[in-house]
Structures are given as C-alpha cells and as structure tokens.
Design brief:
The chain is mainly beta and 175 residues long. Helix content is 13%, strand content 38%. It contains 2 helices and 11 strands. Strands 1, 2, 3, 4, 5, 6, 7, 8, 9, 10 and 11 form an 11-stranded mixed beta sheet that branches. The longest helix has 13 residues.
Length: 175
C-alpha cells in the first residue's frame, strides 16, 4: 500500500520575510464613533487600531472578520452587517508585510467590552487625529466615512515607519 503524502503546511510555520500575510480588519461603528483597540502587543503597542487579525487556513476574509470581531470583542456580527471597504497593502524590508481586507460594520452601542489584546474604547470620528494610531489608519477611516472604496499601498522602512502611501484607485499620494 502506497503511503499518502500530506501537502499541508503546519499552521505554526511563519511566512518567509517579505511574503505578504493575509488579514481582515473590522471597523465597528456606532453612528460617528468607532470601537478601537489600544494594543498591548506588537506591532503598534499603545496605538488604537481596528479589531481583526490573520486569516486562518481555509478561511475567507469575511469569515476571519466575523471570527476576529467575536474573539476580540464578544460582539457577534453577521455577513450582512459587513461592508467591504477596501484593501491595505503594507510592504517593508522586515517581517511586516500584510494584505489586509478592511471592513466596516455598523453595530448597536454597548459599553466597550474587555479584551485580552488591549483596551477597547469608543472614539469619536472627529477625535481620531488626536489619538495615537498607525499612520495609515486615519486615511482609511476617512474613506470609510465617505463610503468610498479604496486600494491603499503603504511602504515602510526597516523600523516600520511609513515612507509613502498611495491610494491606487484614484492614483493619489496620501503620505
């Protein structure tokens, strides 16, 4: 009897440096407030970011968005609540290379739940420029509020400092 060889890769195998990893991010919105996570862990320690994370094996971006939202907030969202906003490509010469699918989900207001990955807080849209966020995020939030699709391409240096950012659909430099 012939032994069958597995073609699967262990989920613990890290992507080679430079290869994009896939993620899904969800901006949870109640009226003009976003539920954002002040991160405990790298990257972006101490900065406010949307909930989300890596896609698991055989998982679509929308499935990951729903799963990650529940894991990080306890909030159950449906596929019907998710609106695809766009994509953010992040490229660096180090181990920070992502293709992130960005979603928006309108949710009822509730007290910010506890999260073991950071502190969740409702932030007014107008206050976002006054808090610590990754350099890419303010641009994304503005497109989402206008309900305008986007394809953003951000280039970083070896210290994960943004060097440039363009919106590819309109062909404009943002940073």
């Amino acid at each position: 009897m012939e032994q069958q060889q597995s073609t699967s890769i262990s989920p613990k195998v890290r992507a080679p440096i430079g290869l994009k990893r896939a993620a899904a991010m969800v901006i949870l919105r109640y009226q003009r407030q976003f539920l954002l996570l002040k991160r405990y862990n790298p990257p972006h320690v101490g900065k406010y970011v949307p909930v989300g994370g890596k896609l698991e094996r055989f998982e679509s971006p929308d499935q990951a968005a729903i799963r990650e939202t529940f894991e990080e907030t306890g909030i159950r969202i449906t596929r019907e609540q998710l609106r695809y906003g766009g994509i953010l490509m992040e490229t660096s010469p180090v181990d920070y290379n992502w293709q992130s699918n960005i979603y928006l989900a309108d949710v009822p207001y509730q007290e910010a739940p506890l999260c073991d990955e950071g502190e969740l807080a409702w932030i007014n849209f107008e206050d976002i420029p006054n808090i610590s966020t990754p350099a890419t995020d303010w641009h994304i939030y503005q497109y989402l509020m206008r309900e305008q699709p986007f394809a953003m391409n951000a280039i970083f240096d070896e210290n994960i400092q943004v060097l440039s950012m363009t919106e590819e659909i309109e062909g404009i430099a943002l940073i």
